[in-house]
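Methods: example folding runs. The two proteins below were folded one after another, and each record is reproduced exactly as written to the output file, sequence line first and structure-token line second.
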Amino acid sequence: MAKAIRDVYGESLAKYGQLNKDVVVLDADVSGSTKSAVFGKACPDRFFNMGIAEAGMTACACGMAAAGKIPFVNTFAVFVTTLGLLPARAFGSYADIPVKMCGAYGGLSDAYDGPTHHALEDIAIMRTLPRFKVFVPCDAVQTDWVVKNAIEDPSPMYLRFSRDAFPDVYQPGETFEEGKGRIVREGKDATVIGCGIMVGNALKAAEELEKEGISLRVVDMFCIKPLDKELVARCAKETGAIISAEEHSIIGGLGGAVAEALAESGIGAPMGFVGMQDRHGECGPYSKLLEKYGLDAAAIAGKVKETIARK
């Protein structure tokens, strides 16, 4: 059974953090939720509860990074990318300091806390910052790799995680490459380019569409910045239609990045966008929110057929 992404994150942070004594972890008094507390238990001398002071926490982490440490900054995604944005921009981006901004409860996954705690703008915010890399893992195996890679790569990063469990997409031991998407299902009629939980949902949609004679390619674009522009162009050329799928606003996130790459390629393929339609969410069961706002497999399948009709 798939494990909750936040649990995998905490375990991986503790596992790899114990192997590298430069790793330090900071949290804004929500370590039980972000699961950074797992690292805190394993390495208490390198764990810092900074209280509900996200901007100060991020600035402090940047100072630690400037001194040679590898700091992971933890709180809910909506807060780390808003309240923590100024120091992330001034120090992480402008000064090229390799702070690791870790956003827990991405998308709608903090379901019952509602719109103040949902993160539907975070990818758009963080991908605009020069030098920052942006990752959104789609399952447990990839989450583990993302943590390991963040320790090894001396770049400022935004890592977006979920509260929930995602369907398993990869087998244990698989590795990935920054800036390279992964085709997880071949198809010839259209391509869904997704990230996070939407990769698993796209695979479900592909199974249903296959019954209707539609062959859907599914791409996991876990690295949103740097984006695999070559793969976007290749899929547009080979399948003739592109659909982005993200648990985020359709404005400025993965869909925006893919649309930019598609426009730059000069390939005239139609594109559809699956994501939040320029609105906030609400409280409710996570699966019901995904269904209501058109982020489930059925919505993806519908958008695929709509986009194919425009070829």
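Second run, written to the same file directly after the first:
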Amino acid sequence: MEKIVGFLNTAMKKGAFTLLCIFLIGISCKKETSGYVPPPPPPPPPVIDSVSIFGTQAPTGKTENDSTGGGIFGIELGVKFRSSVNGKVEAVRFYKTPGNNGAHTAQLYAGDGTLLASQVYGNETDSGWQTLFLSAPISINANTTYVACYFSSLGNYISTANGLKTAVTNSVLTALADSTDGLNGVYKYTNQPSLPDSSHLSNNYWVDVIVSH
């Protein structure tokens, strides 16, 4: 009987010792955990700024249409612009006044006349800024001339005389003053999208771009 009691005492002591060890280990882990400092969160992605030349500005006046004869019914209208930093043209936009019916095609040209992008507008509103986001943004170089334009299939447009007689600058973008790099406020009578190469009264035809940088 004494052997059994001794065995039980020994077993109880071992069990108590085991529980004590588990308790002490738990306290130790809790102390270590309480001092744990999580790593800082990853930095947020860089903010990409985007800007347009004319912002929320809007022209006054009504839709115009030049009768040219000779079976030419369309017109292409554009603006020469530069960015002071490298960037990407995300969209080409134009201001539409009531009555500017027909199909419209956005285009972007390099200064040497190379076509960089051409897409047809869809889901236009009756008036206001019409924005076409390019299927693939076009990279542009700083301080380099580009031409943003749109083709109006029925020859409708809005213009502001002498609107580009002086440069128009917003943030990193500048619509060049007429004669800074050749003509500006450019147009061309045509029945299909084509690089505009004429100018009249330094007109602003309210063509614009959205550039990210």
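Comment on the second run: The two ends are 90 Å apart (CA to CA).
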